[in-house]
Amino acid sequence: MKNGKIVAKIVRWCPCAGTVEDLKTIMTRGTPLILLLAMQLIASAFHSCVGFQIPSFLRGPFGKKGSDYVGGRRRWVPKAALSSVEVLDDQALKRVLLKHPSGSEATVYPFGATLTSFRTFDGEEVIAVRKDAKMDGSKAISGGIPHCFPQFGPGELPQHGFARNMEWRIKELSDEFTRNAYVTLELTDNDETRKIWDKSFSLEYTVTLRDVALSTDLRVRNLDHTAHMEFTAALHSYWNVSSLANVEVVGAFKGARVIDRQQSPHVEGTEDEYVLRITEPTDKMYCNLPGEVVIKDTGYNRMLSVKSPTGFEDVVLWSPYGDESMGFDDFLCVENAAASSKVTVPPLDEWRASMRVDVRTLPRARS
Ligand SMILES: *[C@@H]1O[C@H](CO)[C@@H](O)[C@H](O)[C@H]1NC(C)=O
């Protein structure tokens, strides 16, 4: 009765509202909508404040979208959640385990300062370790992200230099008040390195674990007071793919100077594609390649965006296509390198190079 009176009043004051009966139906029909909005409001509050994973259709217009949920992968993390770092020494080689409050994890071996695992919070592995890898220190770890320093590839020094098979010192670990867990490793010249390369240097390498991203920073210092130091360097990154048949590599390749190192002698040319597919043994160096390289994998339904904000100007694409003993179909190497020309560091100066990988979900194909 009361409702009826209100409705009648509205109709009187606002003639455009139609008849009393019309308004009554609107109000009855409107109730489910109001309940739905209220439910979505509560659901989104749970989602953002308590960290409950609630699907976006339940959160409706209140759902937190935009930058917090890039590619649907980022998970909301309570402000108070803590990262952690552990040094584990229960196997042949010591390893550092980084944990981010979002649930992502990374493993770094001080031996060769090699990262061997980066999992996002949903447990998906981004890194590949070759099936023929030795994890006992008898040789460099084949897979993960090993270093090539002070020489990329073959040359006067041993293939890929020595940094990848020396024990680095743990210099710093993030504390529990750091949101993005990190480890800093250090290698300075010693009797062993001077026998191979008679230079006075220090390398400092930091791996920082973010939620759906990971970054690395390399700092190379020339500790000599008078002499310049020259070298080439790279991160020989092995990215985990579902199968090379599912993979496209996208970047600013078209028009770039490319050195085909698979041929002997090497053949230099200009790339004429933006999108590359791996269908044969590949070893190509793209010189001064700007921007990111995206590894699109329809099998894993994800994209890995790999870039070097500073320092590494070349990108090397490597695949031992067809080599079953290496498990060739499980990985693709997209390597950030400074190798097409030598880096020169003046006395007591330094050179820095960084790399960052972001994991995203493939956008839905439009049909
Ligand atoms: C790739 O990741 C999967 C898990 O997603 C893992 O089982 C596999 O061992 C990884 N492949 C390599 C070569 O590391």
Largest sheet: 9 strands, antiparallel
Q: Give the count of structural domains.
A: 2
CATH topology of the largest domain: Beta-galactosidase, Chain A, domain 5
Q: Using DSSP, what is the number of strands?
A: 21
- Overall CATH architecture of the largest domain: Distorted Sandwich
Structural class based on helices, strands and sheet pairing: alpha+beta
Distance between the termini: 53 Å
Please give the share of residues in helix.
10-25%
What is the radius of gyration? 27 Å
Bound molecules: 2-acetamido-2-deoxy-beta-D-glucopyranose
Q: Could you characterize the architecture of this molecule?
A:
- This protein folds into 2 domains: 2-64, no CATH class; 84-361, Beta-galactosidase, Chain A, domain 5 (Distorted Sandwich).
- It is built from 4 helices and 21 strands.
- The chain has helices at residues 2-13, 20-50, 56-59, 191-196, and strands at 84-88, 95-99, 105-109, 114-119, 147-148, 169-173, 182-188, 201-209, 213-222, 229-235, 238-240, 247-250, 257-260, 267-270, 275-276, 282-287, 293-297, 302-307, 314-319, 331-345, 350-361.
- 2-acetamido-2-deoxy-beta-D-glucopyranose (NAG) binds next to loops.
Tell me briefly what this model is.
The strands form three sheets. This protein has a nine-stranded antiparallel beta sheet with strand order 6-7-8-9-21-18-17-12-15, with no helix packed on it. The protein has 367 residues and is an alpha+beta fold. The radius of gyration is 27 Å and the shape is elongated.
